[in-house]
Design goal:
Helix content is 22%, strand content 33%. It has three helices and five strands; from the N terminus they run αβαβββαβ. It has helices at 2-8, 18-23, 67-73; strands spanning 15-17, 37-45, 50-58, 61-66, 86-88.
Length: 92
């Protein structure tokens, strides 16, 4: 519950901290994909993972949608964002 509150406002001025990005849950399924609001594209390598996809808001929560899921949903839903989200490193 505590991370949900922190993540809700973690994207500020087109940036997100890597620490927060690691805690963003992946949106695997939802009842209405058209109700998902795009925030911005992410392409970031961490030590153990590669985040390439889009950050979205569904309800009042922040989620990550991987690129493969975006491609699978493309025939049913248009992804309209071209805005890139910059990821700042943990130590900076």
């Amino acid at each position: 519950m505590e991370w949900e509150k922190i993540l809700r406002d973690s994207v500020k001025e087109g940036t997100i901290r890597e620490l927060y990005l690691r805690h963003v849950p992946t949106l695997k399924t939802c009842e209405n994909w058209n109700a998902v609001e795009e925030i911005g594209l992410v392409d970031h390598h961490t030590k153990y993972a590669h985040y390439k996809g889009i950050l979205v808001k569904y309800g009042d929560r922040l989620f990550y949608v991987p690129e493969k899921r975006m491609e699978a949903l493309a025939p049913y839903r248009a992804w309209k964002t071209k805005k890139a989200i910059k990821v700042t490193e943990v130590g900076k």
